[in-house]
Every structure is written in C-alpha cells, then in structure tokens.
Amino acid sequence: MNLETEKPMSSQDLSTAPKRTAELEELLIDAEADDEQVQQTQPLLRRPWLLLLGLVLVALNLRPALSSMAPMLSEVSKSLGLSASKAGLLTTLPVLCLGLFAPLAPVLARRFGAERVVLGILLTLAGGIILRSSFGEIGLFAGSILAGASIGVIGVLLPGIVKRDFPKQAGTMTGVYTMALCLGAAMAAGSTVPLSEHFDKSWAMGLGFWVIPALVAALFWLPQVGSKHGAHNVAYRVRGLLRDKLAWQVTLYMGLQSSLAYIVFGWLPSILIGRGLTPTQAGLVLSGSVIVQLVSSLSAPWLATRGKDQRLAIVIVMALTLAGLFGCLYAPIEGLWGWAIVLGLGQGATFSLALTLIVLRSRDSHVAANLSSMAQGFGYTLASMGPFAVGVVHDWTGGWTAVGWIFGVIGLGAIIAGLGAGRALYVQVESEKV
Description:
Elements: E1 2-4, H1 11-15, H2 17-30, H3 35-40, H4 48-60, H5 64-67, H6 69-80, H7 84-101, H8 104-112, H9 114-132, H10 136-165, H11 170-198, H12 203-208, H13 211-225, E2 236-239, H14 245-274, H15 279-304, H16 311-330, H17 336-360, H18 365-383, H19 385-397, H20 403-421, E3 429-433
Antiparallel strand pairs: 1-3, 2-3
Helix pairs in contact: 2-18, 4-10, 4-11, 4-13, 6-11, 6-14, 6-15, 7-10, 7-14, 7-18, 7-19, 8-9, 8-10, 9-10, 9-13, 10-11, 11-15, 14-15, 14-16, 14-17, 14-18, 14-19, 14-20, 15-17, 16-17, 16-20
C-alpha cells in the first residue's frame, strides 16, 4: 500500500517545475508499473492510423449535439411554445447527463471493452439526435437526455484509449483530440441555421443533420472492435479522493469553468439575437469564438507549466473569459467580434487547464484516472446548473441584463477554486492493488 500525502513540493522541486511537468505527463502512462506490467500494457495495433482517424471522428461528435441547439433555440421554442424556463431546462439536461452518466463508462468498459462501448454509444448518440428532431416536445427532451448521456460516457473513455494506445504521443494526441472536439462544436454552431434554411427552414432537419457524422464515426470505428489492444491487467483501488480538499478544488474548478462554457453553448446565440443579430449571425459569432479556442487550448497548458504553479495562469484565463462574456452582454454591438475572440481565448484556456490540473495534481495514472472521473462526474453535474439558472433569470426578468450576475458569481467561484487547485501539491490518496 502506498500512502501519498498532500504536502508542498520542496524549493528544489519548484526550481525544476518544467522538467517535473514532463515527468508528470509520463506518469499518465503508468509511472508505478514494473517491467512486467509495462510489457502487458504495450498496444497491439496493426493500423494505428485507422485508430487515429477513428478517434478524431468520434471526438468531432462530442459537441455538435450540444452546440447545434443554441442557434436554433429561439426557433425551436417558438415552434413548440417553450417558455424560457423550459428552454433553460433543455440546455441543462444534456450537461447534467454528462456528469450523471460519466461514472457508468468504466463499468461498461470493464464488462464489454472500451472499443465495443464506444461503438454502441455512438449509435445511441445517433438515436438521440434522431429522437430530439422527430417527435415534438417529448422527443426533444428525451433525445437531448440520450445524447447527453452518450457524450458523457464516450468522453470518459477516449482519453484512456489515447493514453493506452499512443503512450509516447499521449500529449500530442490529447491536443489532437481537444482540437477535434472544439472543431466539431464550431462546425455545428456555425452551420446548423444555414442547414435548416436550406431544408425549407426546418429546425428539425437542421438538428437532425448531425446524425450523419455520428454514423460515419461509427462506421470508421467499427474495425477497432475486432482489433487487439493492450490492456492493464493489474487493477488498482484508489481511496481518499472524496475526503481530499485539493481533489474537490480541482473538481470545483472543472465544474465552474464548464458551467460558463455550457452557458455560452446554450445561451450566447439567444443573447445576441436579443441584442439584434439574426440567428445566422449569432451562430457564426459562437462558431468563431469556439474556433479561437483551438489556439489557447493548445498553448495555455504549456505556458502555465513554465512557472512554479498554475495560479496566475488560472486568474488570467478566467479574467479573459469574464471580460469576453461581459463584453458580449453589455458592450456596444460594433465591437462584438473582438469580445467573442477574447471569450474564445479565455474559455479554450480554462478548459485545457482544467484537464492539465488533473495530471499535475496526481502522482500516477491510477490517481489521475480516478481524479478525472471525480472531476467530470461531480463537475459536469454542477456545471448543468448554470444554463438552467440563465433560463430562469431570463424568464423572471424578461431580458438578459441580469444574467451578468450569474457570470460574475460563477467566474469568481472558479477563480477561488482555481487558486486552490493551482498550487504545486498532490492529492492525498491511498493506492493499492486489487
């Protein structure tokens, strides 16, 4: 049994922070594994390029079901007679399911294998997209739940597959995965309204179009089901995370920054439409902001690990995010694109830093896996409250001005949690073989 205590790094450790960052990233592979275990975990891939293509296509499908709804929300609400509170619930349910169904992923993977689960869940994602665009209000909510649950399960499994089958390129592959995820979100945000207009202004066709990429991803993922892959044959039990203050700070930072992200996905186009933009223009602003995230999501972790800890970086990126949000909400509309760019830079960095903190606050891959599950499960459940609160406040006030208070409270909470999570400490856990 290894007892890992939460204690500050020494001054010598802090002086070598950049070098230790690289070592910590390698720990995700399996720093505690002996020679026999390393041999057991070697991937048995005959066509890694096919796996890479499959991973990219799967990642592309992890946001369209969420970001495609935002530009169409006003049209959908008018068509089905939804109140602002119901519309808020519609944006909340998928995010809530990300958290509620995340713990199901490792259970399914142990029972059926990660590759089979990803394939099956891609098909349930496709089913959810069809359901929400074909059967009125009931189908809209049921399909949104199914889509959110599907994304929650796949989102937990893909990073593990990356670390297992591309151990020497884990950092690069995680960057590719993140870029594909952001690209999928941007594509859906910018093209859903034009697609609906192409199909005789049918919002159902615009939303339903995204079943095609899901089915294409399933087709290209199919060869992975029959392939042989390396696996961890030694299981570890990690205890103590739920009693660890640092683990909760990482979780709160993940949840609160995600809450702002899903408010943007769910409500930014509606806010901009309320300020006078057309649905197409609002969708393009959201799409452009998400595309900008590609830059900061790759650069922020590298920059953040140049110093002794990540606290300053967290304050800076959260300040950018809040500035972008307040600018989109209150600043003159002529400068909207500038504020959208600031928002994208901030949010791309906050998300990638949240993932990086999971790595840096963990001593080995077993702890990182459990901390990741905790941060996503509890964090996304917390994140779902933000979009719902925006809908309720808008319903009460009949406008968007008051939602700035929601931005401020959530952003301040994320900064406070991030100041704790950004310290150069490790979570305190007990790790043992089972």
